[in-house]
Amino acid sequence: MLTRDFFNRPTMKVARDMLGAVLIHNSPAGKTAGIIVETEAYLQGDPACHASRGKTRRNAAMFGPPGTAYIYLVYGIHCCFNTVTMPTGTGEAVLVRALEPLEGLELMKRRRGIADVKGLCSGPGRLCQAMGLDRQYNGMNLSSPSLYIQQGAVPESIVTTTRVGISQGQQLPYRFYIAGNRWISRK
DNA sequence: CCGAGGATCATCT
DNA sequence: GATGATCCTCGGT
User: Fold this and answer.
1) Chain A window 37-96, residues with Cβ within 7 A of nucleic strand C
2) Using CB atoms within 10 A as the burial measure, which of A39, A45, A74, A117 is most buried?
3) pLDDT tens-digit profile of A88-120?
4) Nearest CA among A19, A79, A69, A12 for reference residue A46
5) How many domains does chain A have?
């Protein structure tokens, strides 16, 4: 299991090193797991980072200790899952944007309301729905038996691009994904 | 395959 | 009162 020491490092490193790791959720409904294949870094002083304009009710979890989950609602419908990084109080985090489904695919499909695995966890909102992650997990520490991240295979090659869906800081190369992976949210 | 448009609501100003 | 770190559907190619 990846613990606080892993997350208590520079956010860009954590964002890259999370690729290949496995996100696991043991819920009452069953176990689901997926390989992290796409991430984005959100840094201090970065206009796209929710914490860049100070602490508010929504982003309070970002100011918690490294390894804290930050889960919030976007567009009134979908959740996004982040892991808090760096020394406590900087408000930096890594957004998980896509998973390669590994375990509990039937449960994932049921939660998503789809019959095919196509795009099952490809996108921040989709993966939260498939994994059963919602705001009740906001602020939870990731070294918990029900929600944690495990070390996985180190990717052969990582692609760096600009981030998706933001209006500020669009030119910053803070998105990472496993080269050639079929489950990323978009090329 | 691709782009446009709409859904939907907690949080922030 | 405005705004999203999104996704689905639908219509056109």
Assistant:
1) 40, 42, 48-51, 62, 70, 73-78, 80, 82, 93, 95
2) A39
3) 999 999 999 999 999 999 999 999 999 999 999
4) A12
5) 1
Token pair recorded at residue A82: 């982040």
Minimal CA–CA distance to A49: which of A97, A92, A84?
Answer: A92
Q: What average pLDDT score do residues A74-94 get?
A: 96
- A186 CA → B2 C1’, Å: 13
Task: Please indicate, yes or no, if residue A61 is contained in any of the structural domains.
Answer: yes
How far: A93 CA to C5 C1' (Å)?
11
Do A162 and A173 contact (CB within 8 A), yes or no?
Answer: yes
For residue A53, what are the domain limits?
4-178
Residue A133's CATH number = 3.10.300.10
